[in-house]
Amino acid sequence: MTDLEKAKRILKDKNQSLVIIKDGKTIFCSDSPGIDGILQAIEKFGEQLSGASVADKVIGKAAALLLAYTQVAEAYAVTMSRKGLGTLRNHDIPVEYDVLVPEILDRKGRDICPFEKFVLKIESPSQAFEELKRYVESLKERKGR
């Protein structure tokens, strides 16, 4: 079984949001929604994520930029946005998905996901990482008040 097949199986069987496998070993799992899991993985493992296989429930442009930043080997999404797919392909990351959608929507399904809006004009994976990290931290601070 390949690393990507293993990641896909764990994602579905254990109802995770994000699974990262490298060299046959599970190095990160998360059931956190949104991009929080990817940001946690980057903070914890950094360059060790390079060459890993990733399975995620939802990959839009924001998640795709973060995956490109970590230089993963390949990715799978249950739901993938067109911009997410384009971003991964632009960074030569092989990708599989079950459902391709025009946009990733917010949790209420009424508007584009705030993270997708945030990265609309960002193309650089490193810029996306730095700015998304700050954006998520500011959201957490606001919730904590």
Commentary on this structure:
The chain is of the alpha/beta class and 145 residues long. The protein has one domain: Cytidine Deaminase, domain 2. It is 45% helix and 23% strand. Strands 2-1-3-4-5 form a 5-stranded mixed sheet. Strand 4, helix 4 and strand 5 form a beta-alpha-beta unit. Helix 3 crosses helix 6. The termini are far apart. 41% of the residues are buried.
Summarize it.
The protein is α/β, with parallel strands linked by helices and 145 residues long. The chain contains six helices and five strands; from the N terminus they run H-E-E-H-E-H-E-H-E-H-H.
CATH domain topology = Cytidine Deaminase, domain 2
What top-tier CATH class fits best? Alpha Beta
> In what order do the strands lie side by side in the largest sheet?
2-1-3-4-5
Q: Separation of termini?
A: 47 Å
Number of strands: 5
Please name the fourth-level CATH homologous superfamily. Answer: Hypothetical protein TM1506
- Helices, by number, come to 6
Low-confidence stretches: none
Count of discrete structural domains: 1
Mass-distribution shape: globular
Question: Which structural class fits the helix and strand makeup?
Answer: alpha/beta
Strand content: 15-25%
Task: Name the CATH architecture.
Answer: 3-Layer(aba) Sandwich
